[in-house]
Protein 1
Amino acid sequence: MLDYTYDQIAKMIDHSLLQPYLTREELERGIQVALDYDVATVCILPYYLRPCVERLAGSAVLPTTTVGFPHGAHATAIKVAEARQALADGARELDMVVNISAVKSGDWDYVRRDIGEVLATTRAAGGRLKVIFENCYLNEAEKIRLCEICGELRVDWVKTSTGYGSAGATEEDVALMRRHSPPEVQVKAAGGVRSFDALLRMRALGATRIGATRTAAILEECRLRLGLAPIRPEFVPA
């Protein structure tokens, strides 16, 4: 007996449209993929957020974008300004990169303030915040301390990776983040989750969201296993 439905899996996926070389035509096609498969969100390049919001209007797919992406080294005031602009443009969720340099320097007061100010801005607009650790650059103690800080601040998600570092999500990191985060803080795996089986493994470890670019292929495999008709036959696995 399968322990999932199509809707449960589709609503785990943030369809990622963040490659810097994507054209407007490609962004539009990506938004349509998200609509066709009724995923959780579209996470799109910030400059194209407003058109994305307009395309998603009336659907159950939420618009979202990034803050401090991909290196996290923006001054806090710039991150807050990015968050404020994105929320004004219609974002419902934001994916913010921690200041990795401050983490590696052990400046935990700065890290807490940096996250907290963006979180306060997001909350004031009724939005939700995911905090990206970029685990490929961190040791275990740093990951655990970030989980503790994010738990104390009550962010909405802790997230493994941008997908643009030297490595993406690992099962070990998802398990660690779930273990060291309070129950109300969810875990998002991003970077390298390219198959339905990989998604299921992350789900079993406690991830509730997945950042994906191969959304159509993942969800067509899900539909195949559930005995459902394909949505876009060109993406059905061979």
Note: Residues 108-124 form the longest helix (17 residues).
Protein 2
Amino acid sequence: MKPYGDTLELAALHPEDLATIRGIQEKGIPVVTVLVSGRPLVVNRELECSAAFVAAWLPGSEGGGVADVLFGAQEFQGRLSFAWPGTGDATTAVARGEESLLSRGYGLRLAV
């Protein structure tokens, strides 16, 4: 099986996605980016162009749950159980002691 790219940087793997986000943002339209992936990717440039960003992972049969929060039927909630990478060389960044883009525990929590 061939590896899928040689980087974890989304803009390098799919520059067309970043171009779409930028094109919409440049028209003055607020962008909510929904990342559907099976692993954390470096999304620094996409975050800079987005008014909001959602990591939906691979929702499988729970895609309806993602739609529920996007359209306001349910409240967003969730926190990272790991640090989100901030560099394209994330596989060794932690070993080198580099800071992550988002720390473990970052996210939303409902006020109780």
Note: The helical segments are 10-13, 15-26, 44-48, 63-70, 90-93.
Protein 3
Amino acid sequence: MDLGRVFEVFRALDREGVRYVLIGGAALNLHGLARATQDLDLFLDARPENVERLKAALRSVFADPEIDDISAEDLAGDYPTVRYAPPQDPFVIDLIARLGDRFRFEDLEAEERLVEGVRVRVASPRTLYLLKKDTVRPIDQADAEALRRRFGLGEP
């Protein structure tokens, strides 16, 4: 993943006032747990005005008319995840508005971090642990265990 591109996205999200929380592998890295990742996972406030701010932020980084296809309706629907991948660019962003009935944007604890001079809203270690601990993916289970050990979360 191109870190320059990552920071362009974070600067644009901040500039546009997008309400998001970084989760996934990139969030683990910001908490000091090294984890390879191929994408950014952003948990979003799916209200239409926030999705419009998101689209403005993405348009400022990527010259891609398909950004206009991202909709609040999709993010509020039965499958509240949109994968955005700009053409001819290996960069991928997963936009998540809800995880089942268990997690909504309002349920997430987040911390604001200044990284390379850019403000990033990242899920707290506790939130990341809760998001990952009961999934079936082995990588998520390993992440949850690493979070548990590093931050003293959950049961041993």
Note: The first helix runs from residue 3 to 16.
Protein 4
Amino acid sequence: MELKDKYNKLIDYAQKSQVEGLSVTEKNGILYISGTATSPVKERIWSIYDEIDPDMRSGDLVLDIKEEESDENADNVYEVKTGDNLSKIAKNYPGMTWQKIYEANKDILKDPNVIYPGQKLKIPL
């Protein structure tokens, strides 16, 4: 089994979660995955890895996901990216729903179906 196939679920999640600077390379029988992500995305990536290799004994993956540097309150702010919608954003935060995000941002969102890349949304954690 090729390593990219073995870790496909993890790689797909990282891509869908728009991990910044995502790099997936294989060298000498080891898969190297690196990039920068929000804390919830990073935690989910590690959870997926734990599902694939519960004892973490395979020794065939180097996972280097750094946490995004944050401004004051950055844990509570999400910058909308192309292709985002409130449901997709909510999936990055355990227990979050699109409705909660919409309610927290009613001052800037008139319609929950209309968001734009670059908008900064409060995430009610």
Note: The helical segments are 3-6, 8-16, 39-52, 86-90, 98-104.
